[in-house]
Each structure stands twice: as structure tokens, then as C-alpha cells.
Amino acid sequence: MVYTDKFYVGFSDVGSDLGMTGAAMLRAFEDVCCMQGEAVGDGLFDSDGRWFLTAYRVKVFKRPKYNDRIVVGTWSREMKGVAASREFEIRDLNGGLCVAALSNWARMNIKTGRLERMEPEAFARYESEPERHNFDDPWISKLHDVSEHTLEREFYVDRNLIDPNMHMNNVFYLDLAMRTLPEEAYLEGEPDEFEITYRKATAYGETLKCLYFDDGQSRTVAVKPQDMSDTRAIVKIYRKN
User: Fold this and answer.
1) Chain segment 37-95, per-residue pLDDT in tens
2) pLDDT of residue 52
3) 169 and 68, same structural domain?
4) In Å, what is the CA distance from 23 to each residue of 26, 168, 176, 194, 208?
């Protein structure tokens, strides 16, 4: 089942070129999948189960602009065990494809903190569509951590970054990566293709280190705690053609 709704690209959704930012796209995807969850009885008030992101892959074909009305859609592509694959689209009002995205998720019980399988009845209500896809493989390969870096920046995790699940919202990892880019890379504008691997949640009050490396084809930012004991997320931004 494909769930769609109309969105408005507002002032807070765009960059200096008045084009929709990657972070704004991720916020729209987050909202529309929550809307589908509510529609099928798997909303925040219906269950102790929550879907947590493990990976994103996003491709921009035509960037929506300020004041555009767009149609954001999502559907479950595949579910197995505690994992799920979900696709997203942003289309213009004429049906033209602007953005395609693939995401992977893991389901957790927020009371026990343990991974859990979805009940078969709830699973069926999502009406997965494995044959409908913009990406060949429903499962995103994990990004490799950086083995070296040429730039390092620190960011404090303040209250405004924390979501209702009491950890730093997934959107802000892309935001931190964009803020870590060197000036010349940042001035190239919003990426047309990027991937994110999410490894571990980040809490309020932590200080994160963002390590940057450019291999000539893509720019990678690894987000780590201050003591460098683990990796919270890896963001890979592909160079524009």
C-alpha cells in the first residue's frame, strides 16, 4: 500500500538557492511514514513498538523549490524478522519524480529496549509492495568507517536535537555532516545523492566528533562520541556529476 500526502516547501525547508535541503526531505519522509503508521493502527499511541532507522539512501533528480506543492509518498517494500525496508518518493503535482529514497529499519520495544518482531496482523496492514521499487536491492549495504581523516569538528548535542524517543533525531546526522564539510565543498550546495548508516543512538549532553575524509569520488563524515569509543553514524555524500 502506497501512502501519499501533499506537502508545502516552506522557507525553513530551503537553502540559499531556494531549493529543498536534504534535511527537509528527511523530515518529510519521517512525517509521511509516521502518517502511514497512524493510518494502519501502528502509531505512537497504538503500540510500544517503534521503528528505528538503520540506513538511508537518497537520490535527487529534480530539487523542489520554495513555495512548491509536492506529493510525498511511502510504502513498505519488505519486512523480515525485526527488519524492514521502506521506499519514499517526492513527486511534483504533475506526477514527475523529484526524489527517490530507500531506507532500512529495525523494530524495538521502547519499554524493554529489545528488538521485537511485528505481530502478523499488524505486518499485514502495511500491505508491502516488493515489486514496486526505484532501487534494485531492498537492503542497503553498511558504509565503512573512515580509516583516516583530514578534518575534525566537534558539536554539542543540545536539547533541540532530541526527539520523542529521547535521542538525537536521525535528520541531524546529515546536518552535522554538511556543517563538517570544508568551505569549498559546502559551497557546492546540497548533495544530489547521499547515504547514511546509523549505528548507535546519541543522547542529550554528549559532544560528538565529526571526522571528514574525501576520496575524490565522495565525501565521508564519521560521527563519533568525544572519546572515540564507537561510531554513531556514517554519512557519505557523493560528488555531483
Assistant:
1) 999 998 888 888 889 999 999 999 999 999 999 999 999 999 988 999 999 999 999 99
2) 94
3) no
4) 5, 14, 10, 11, 19
Q: Give residue 155's pLDDT band: very low, low, confident or very high (50, 70, 90).
A: very high
CA distances from 185 to 56, 191, 240 (A): 21, 10, 11
The C-alpha atoms of residue 231 and residue 173 are separated, in whole angstroms, by 12
Strand bridging mode 49-60 / 69-80: unpaired
Measured from the Cβ of residue 186, the count of other Cβ atoms closer than 10 Å reads: 12
Query: Which residue in this structure is represented by grid cell 526505484?
Result: 134
Domain residues for 224? 151-238
| Per-residue model confidence as pLDDT tens digits over 169-190 | 999 999 999 999 999 999 899 9
**Structure confidence by residue, pLDDT tens digits, 94-125:** 999 999 999 999 999 988 989 998 888 877 88
Angle at the Cα of 173 from the Cα atoms of 70 and 210, rounded to 5 degrees: 145
Q: Which of 61, 54, 49 is nearest to 25 (CA)?
A: 61
Structural domains in the chain (count): 2
- Do 170 and 101 lie in one domain? The reply is no
The Cα 238–Cα 241 span in angstroms is 9
Cα–Cα distance, 215 to 28 (Å, whole number) = 30
Quick check: is 207 in a domain? yes
**Helices and strands of the chain, counted as H and E runs:** 4, 10
* pTM, 2 dp: 0.94
Using an 8 Å Cβ cutoff, are 108 and 100 in contact?
no
